[in-house]
Every structure is written in C-alpha cells, then in structure tokens.
C-alpha cells in the first residue's frame, strides 16, 4: 500500500492532515472543531476510530482547536515535544496521562512500518516542528508555518517524493492589505510565514528526480490565491534556472473548506 495522505483543511482557519499506510493512520494537527474534523474525515471515508494518534506541529489555535476534543472522543494518544505540551495544555483540556506522549524535536519514531521524523522549523511558537514520513523507499514531508527555509529544514525534507509545503502569502498583497503593520511585520519576518516567492526559491533547490508533487499549503485567504501562488512559485523557480514540465513535477492545490483527494506517494 505504501504512504497515502489527504490534507483535510489548510489555512489560517484550521489545519489537519491524515497520513496512513497499511498498518497505521496518523493525523497531523487538529485545528478545527471536532465536529468539522469528523465531517472532513467522513468525506474521505475515514472514521475517528481508525486513527492511531495525533502529531502536533505547534500550539497555535489553527492547529489545535479540536485537538483535546478529538483525542478524548476517540481515546487517542497525542505526540508533541515538551515545550509544545507546556504551551498548549491549558487550551486543550484534560488529556489522559497515557495519551500525553512527548516526542522530541528531531526524534524518529516508528509506528509499525510507518516511520516518522520530526524536525525543527522557524515560527513564533514554543518549539514548532514539521514531519517526514517514511515507508520503504517512499518519503512524504509536511512543512508549514515557516518563517524561512533554513538549511536544516532543506536537509530534512530533501529527497522527498511528495511535499506539503507552505506558500502563505503574496508579498505585495500582504503589504497593501488591511492588517496593521505589526502583524504584517510578523508574517514577513523569520518567525512568520513563507511567501510564494520564498517557496519557489526553496523548491528550486529541492527539486530533484525524486520530487514528483508539492501541495501548496496554508494559503492566506486575505493575501493569496491558489492560482497566484502557483504562478509565483513557478516564476520564482524559473528565475533561478529551474525549469520543469507538468508531466515531471506538479504543484497541487489544498483547500481551507474541503479535503484534497487521497494521494498515494508511490504514484508518478
């Protein structure tokens, strides 16, 4: 079976992704209400009882809004590093001690035949992380809420077959937008969010024969659009001498209001 995944929802209104192989089903974040997460799971023919655990990237509400409720409803273990646990405990409510599991940043953990590696990222949270998933020769990487693409992150997600990668904002739309300047400065800073241009620059270094698809994720509804993100990412890559055909590498959509289709990492 290998690795397959669906991005249930992506954006500032809530984030959740499901990754599975033949033995294990994991959710990354639970940033929507428990009711909405159940609805999105149902759309992809998954039940809460099938989930084996929830991996947390960081404690911001758009990543943990339904975390406590989902974990209690289905008696699920939650995996997060100690600083994230400390930062989110008051927000998620009481969690059974056996379901409160510390997974350190940089730790590699096996869930049956699905191997998961966390890696540190730059964001204004306690100790934010992204995740890589391995099954045999397959590799899926999930990295959003990136202030910038550090060399360590590039190293962690290199040689991926498929990525879910942030393309949060168009810089000019953000600068002209309604947000106050202090918020704009946060988003543009090294602990904020990755712009379309920066995503393209990173992909120009990461695009190898192994990488087949990248899902552009965590788009701002105020300062981005999927078509604009794709165009800017492509232009940014080409400006750096990275040319490709859609038959060789694809930029894929994510949505804030509906899940992506199931994607098998092994598929060309």
Order of helices and strands: EEEHEHHEHEEEEEHEHHHEHEE
Average pLDDT value?
Answer: 96
Percent helix, as a range, is 25-40%
Structural class: alpha/beta
| SS element count, helices | 9
Summed up, what is this model?
This protein has helices at residues 34-43, 61-64, 67-74, 82-92, 151-157, 171-176, 181-188, 196-206, 226-239; strands spanning 4-9, 16-20, 25-28, 53-55, 78-80, 100-102, 108-111, 114-120, 129-135, 138-143, 162-166, 213-217, 250-252, 263-264. The chain is of the alpha/beta class and 268 residues long.
Properties at a glance:
seven-stranded mixed beta sheet; MBL fold metallo-hydrolase; globular; 268 residues; alpha/beta; 24% strand; WalJ/YycJ-like; Metallo-B-lactamas
Molecular structure report:
This protein has 268 residues and is of the alpha/beta class. The protein contains nine helices and 14 strands. It has a seven-stranded mixed sheet with strand order 6-5-4-3-2-1-14. The radius of gyration is 17 Å and the shape is globular. The two termini are 15 Å apart. The mean pLDDT is 96.
Which helices and strands appear, and what pairs or packs with what?
Layout: E1 4-9, E2 16-20, E3 25-28, H1 34-43, E4 53-55, H2 61-64, H3 67-74, E5 78-80, H4 82-92, E6 100-102, E7 108-111, E8 114-120, E9 129-135, E10 138-143, H5 151-157, E11 162-166, H6 171-176, H7 181-188, H8 196-206, E12 213-217, H9 226-239, E13 250-252, E14 263-264
Parallel strand pairs: 3-4, 4-5, 5-6, 10-11, 11-12, 12-13
Antiparallel strand pairs: 1-2, 1-14, 2-3, 7-8, 8-9, 9-10
